Amino acid sequence: MTRTPVITLLKVVHYNSNLQKFTRKTLSSFSKTVLQRTASSSNMSLNEAKRIAAHRAVDEWVKTNTVIGIGSGSTVVFAVERLAERVQKEGLKVTCVPTSFQARQLIVENNLVLGDLDRNPKLAVAIDGADEVDRNMVLIKGGGGCLLQEKIVASCAEKLIIIADYTKNSEHLGEQYKKGIPIEVVPMAYVPIRERIAAKYGGELKLRMAVAKAGPCVTDNGNFILDWHFKQNCDCDWAKVNSELLQIPGVVETGLFVNMAAKAYFGMNDGSVKTQDK
């Protein structure tokens, strides 16, 4: 019987140990890569859903020699992208009225004609995103803090067109969007307004805090925002609720858009676009 030298056995054990470490390390790295790519693919899928909805709406509603409202938010980025493409390729002539500083920057950066409501009080169409759209075309907007100017621009347009991805489409408000209904308020009045709404309608109202600085979030108009986390499964008359909220002294505007949107475009995860009419 041939005996294997002890030193050879030690080398084999050392080799196998290193191989196992290498294998575990390689598999771990591979797993992380797969997870990262999966997450990236999922994010791309959501962005692609936003893109196809935005492009479809711009193609169907924007005509040459018109003035249009440009909303705020992540989905509107793709609408401006498509609008800039059409201006360059088709020679489309449009003037764009922004709903926020972000929208203004998008218009300028894409070399589109910047307009305002002073010179263009009537708009052919406004294209904007939404945080949630229910079965009756009632919207929650203002997650980005631009609800007042968004509603002003929308009210000046003949048609308000909503663009969103499939996660924003719900049967009832609050089903998908869990951050509440934004209510823009005068800073000195936010505490009595918060208590009054909670006492009458229930739920919880939270003062929205800034992300990049200490203190409350301040809107483009110098106001605060209360996010109203209303009771779930609320079968409310949202038009009535909106009207009552606006009668409270200190309430500037709400993120409830009732009887305003003419059509909504939802980019679906299968690459199709679902539409919903008023």
TrEMBL record:
Q: Which CDD domains match?
A: RPI_A (cd01398)
Q: What is this protein called?
A: ribose-5-phosphate isomerase
What family is reported? Belongs to the ribose 5-phosphate isomerase family.
Q: Which domain of life is it from?
A: Eukaryota
| Gene Ontology molecular function | ribose-5-phosphate isomerase activity
Entry keyword annotation includes Isomerase: yes
Pathway-wise, it operates in: Carbohydrate degradation; pentose phosphate pathway; D-ribose 5-phosphate from D-ribulose 5-phosphate (non-oxidative stage): step 1/1
| Organism of this sequence | Bactrocera latifrons
Q: Which InterPro entries match?
A: NagB/RpiA_transferase-like, Ribose5P_isomerase_type_A
Which reactions fall under this protein's catalytic activity? Answer: aldehydo-D-ribose 5-phosphate = D-ribulose 5-phosphate
- E.C. no: 5.3.1.6
Q: Name one Pfam family in it.
A: Rib_5-P_isom_A
**Which GO BP annotation is one of this protein's?**
pentose-phosphate shunt, non-oxidative branch
**Gene from which the chain derives:** Rpia_1
